[in-house]
Design goal:
The protein is α/β, with parallel strands linked by helices. The protein contains ten helices and eleven strands. The strands form three sheets. A six-stranded mixed sheet has the order 3-2-1-4-5-8. A three-stranded antiparallel sheet has the order 9-10-11, with helices on both faces. Strand 10 and strand 11 form a beta hairpin. The chain is globular, with a radius of gyration of 18 Å.
């Protein structure tokens, strides 16, 4: 039987430092992590890495980099003896923010480290990510207890070329395993390589491997439209299941099923391609993990 990474005891509510940006419109990052993890009975403590007016797919977006406030922010936590059970990081605004996360790792050495290396997709790096920030994210990934890259992010972490080929239509199971094993070799303890959709097929695949899981493929029906924020929903749901005591393969399956169902709900909303993934009506599925 698969063993869990986190042991949930009784009515205890785990406390999570969620190191992500806050986006005003477009449902992603902290706007997803807070409700999803709260539904899983977790206390979510945001550490905002940036403030965005909307996600960057919209023209004219505004970003405020919060790097300069984070040292004082965490000093204030130290002053009131905040205790943290897990550290969950996603989008970062500057290379120096990796040092902020490393500080959290040093302050809370027993906390579970979940790194969603949000920096690229479909062969393209996000517009706010510099080469220095990508390098810093790769260093952070090596310290993860759970690392959840897509193919493009995996290539960046490994220092391999990226391009349209990394959208994934020609990635075989053996190549996926090579990538996962290479990521584990960098130091990550468990890897979930996500979002592999092969040309002409109607499934989307995620591959799991690490200290807590044999190499396993978990798949879902592929839906022929893209929505912003699905990666954040996926990583948040995976972490929610892990903190509910589920094994990593089971948590990966739960996250994939949840995102699939949320995308179906999303398609029923007006202007759904711009609104982002509509997960709100399904939060009861997360509460039922407990």
């Amino acid at each position: 039987m698969e063993t869990g990474i986190y042991v949930r005891e009784g009515a205890y509510i785990p406390r999570i430092a969620a190191v992500h940006d806050l986006c005003g419109y477009g449902k992603c990052s902290l706007g997803v992590a807070i409700p999803v993890l709260s539904a899983a009975g977790c206390d979510v403590c945001p550490v905002p890495t940036g403030l965005f007016s909307s996600h960057t797919a919209f023209p004219g977006w505004y970003m405020h980099d919060t790097t300069d406030i984070l040292e004082d922010y965490l000093n204030a936590w130290d002053g009131i003896n905040v205790q943290i059970d897990a550290i969950y990081s996603g989008f970062l605004g500057a290379p120096e923010q990796v040092d902020v996360i490393k500080r959290l790792y040093d302050t809370y050495p027993k906390a579970l480290r979940v790194v969603d290396p949000v920096m690229a997709d479909h062969g393209k790096v996000y517009p706010t990510y510099t080469p220095e920030l990508c390098d810093a994210m790769a260093r952070l990934a090596a310290d993860a207890d759970i690392l959840t890259p897509n193919l493009t992010e995996a290539a960046i972490i490994l220092g391999e070329p990226i391009g349209e080929a990394w959208a994934g239509p020609n990635i075989s199971d053996s190549e996926a395993r090579r990538l996962v094993e290479a990521l584990l070799a960098t130091g990550a303890k468990n890897v979930v390589l996500k979002g592999i959709q092969r040309e002409g097929e109607s499934v989307i695949r995620n591959f799991v491997m690490g200290e807590n899981a044999e190499f396993t493929q978990v798949s879902n029906e592929y839906l022929p439209y893209m929505l912003h924020g699905t990666g954040d929903v996926y990583a948040s749901c995976l972490m929610a299941a892990v903190l509910a005591g589920k094994g990593l393969v089971e948590a990966t399956a739960f996250a994939g099923d949840f995102v699939h169902d949320a995308m179906i709900v999303s398609a029923q909303q007006p202007d759904f391609r711009n609104r982002g993934v509509s997960f709100e009506l399904l939060l009861g599925k997360i509460t039922s993990l407990l």
